[in-house]
Every structure is written in C-alpha cells, then in structure tokens.
C-alpha cells in the first residue's frame, strides 16, 4: 500500500507499522527505490502473492499447501510495507497512487478470505469476512473524506486480519496431520469476520464522535 496517496488535512494518511523502521525493510526498500521497480508494481505484486495463496488454500488441502499459503499471506504484507516506503522514503510517488493505495488491498483481502470460507465448509462466512474487511477500509476512508484523520485502529485492522489468517493456516497444517477436520480454518475466518464487524462499528463510532466535536 502507498500510504502517501490518501491525505487528510494535508498530511499523509499512513498506517503505523513498527517494521517500517526495521533494518531489513529499510535496506530492501532502498534497493527497490534504486531500481526500475515502481511502488505501483509492488502493490500489484501483493495481489499476485494473494492469488497464489488463494489457489493453495482452495486446491492444496495438504499441510505443505497451507504452510505455503501462510507464507503468501506474509509476502502480501511485505509488499504492502515496501510499496509505501519506496513511494515516500524512496521519493517515487505516483500520480495514481491513490488507486494503488486501496484497490489492490481490497482484491488481495478477497482473494485470501473467500477461499478460506470454502475450505472450512462455510462459503458464506468467507464472503462475509471479505465484505466486512472491505467495509473497514471504506469506513476509514469515509472518515477522511469528512475531514477527519483516517483511523487505522480496530481489533481487526489489516495486519491483524492477516495475522489471524496466517495463524489459522499454520494451525490447520498441524491439525491436518492428526485429523481430517478443518476447525482451525473455521475459527480463523470466523474471528476475522467478527473482528472486522467490530472494527467497522468502532471506527464508525469514532467518526460520529469526531463530527460532534468538530
């Protein structure tokens, strides 16, 4: 994600990420900034990794496939970290950064969450999780459109959604070695859906409170 692309009050709307200051992220973003790779291409790469993860979840059905899918989830997040760093710290901002700021994230979320619902035996829950994940972003951006600071808070913001999904996939790889059940995937997608619903509520309540104070 390129967090410089969406602004509120003249300041970049940037998701607070601790790993942005880590040595490996700084070194890798500098190498990418010095190359011909653009932030928008990194954003698209996040969707590619999500697509691979989706295929592994939907078609793999083996411990190795679920572990590989968990790696894809994390690689998606690495892309989300690096595209913003290359754009801002690397000085490679794009005029269409606002598009690449949001659209790839929504596609990646859907690609990763929907197959989990099918794999867990409850397709509707995967779709619900994807819809609610998109709604958390909508509420955040809507707050910014009203002149408020965009809020990245919430019990199931993007990093936490992906953390829950990664944990569920790793747990499922272990579960599958002792049983043919898929409780780990079911619990993971239910937690993401419920947490996203709560996040929508708390962000909406914060917007209402901000408007009253304005």
From TrEMBL:
The chain crosses the membrane at residues 44-68, 121-141, 185-206. GO terms for molecular function: transferase activity. It comes from the Bacteria. The keyword Magnesium does not apply. InterPro entries: CDP-OH_PTrfase_TM_dom (IPR043130). Its EC number is 2.7.8.-. It is an enzyme of class 2 (transferase). Keywords: Membrane, Transferase, Transmembrane, Transmembrane helix. Coiled coil: none annotated. The keyword Transmembrane helix applies. This is CDP-alcohol phosphatidyltransferase family protein.
């Amino acid at each position: 994600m390129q967090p410089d692309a969406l602004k509120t009050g003249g300041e970049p709307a940037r998701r607070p990420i601790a790993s942005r200051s880590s040595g490996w992220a700084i070194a890798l973003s500098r190498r990418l900034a010095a190359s011909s790779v653009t932030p928008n291409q990194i954003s698209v790469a996040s969707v590619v990794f999500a697509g691979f993860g989706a295929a592994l979840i939907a078609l793999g059905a083996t411990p190795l496939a679920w572990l590989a899918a968990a790696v894809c989830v994390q690689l998606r997040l690495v892309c989300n970290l690096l595209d913003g760093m290359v754009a801002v710290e690397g000085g490679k901002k794009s005029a269409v950064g606002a598009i690449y700021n949001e659209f790839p994230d929504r596609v990646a979320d859907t690609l990763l969450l929907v197959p989990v619902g099918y794999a867990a035996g409850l397709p509707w829950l995967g779709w619900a999780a994807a819809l609610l994940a998109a709604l958390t972003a909508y509420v955040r951006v809507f707050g910014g459109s009203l002149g408020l600071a965009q809020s990245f808070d919430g019990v199931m913001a993007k990093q936490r959604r992906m953390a829950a999904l990664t944990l569920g996939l790793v747990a499922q790889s272990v579960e599958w070695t002792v049983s043919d059940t898929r409780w780990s995937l079911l619990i993971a997608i239910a937690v993401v859906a419920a947490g996203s619903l709560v996040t929508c509520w708390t962000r909406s309540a914060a917007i209402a409170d901000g408007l009253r104070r304005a």
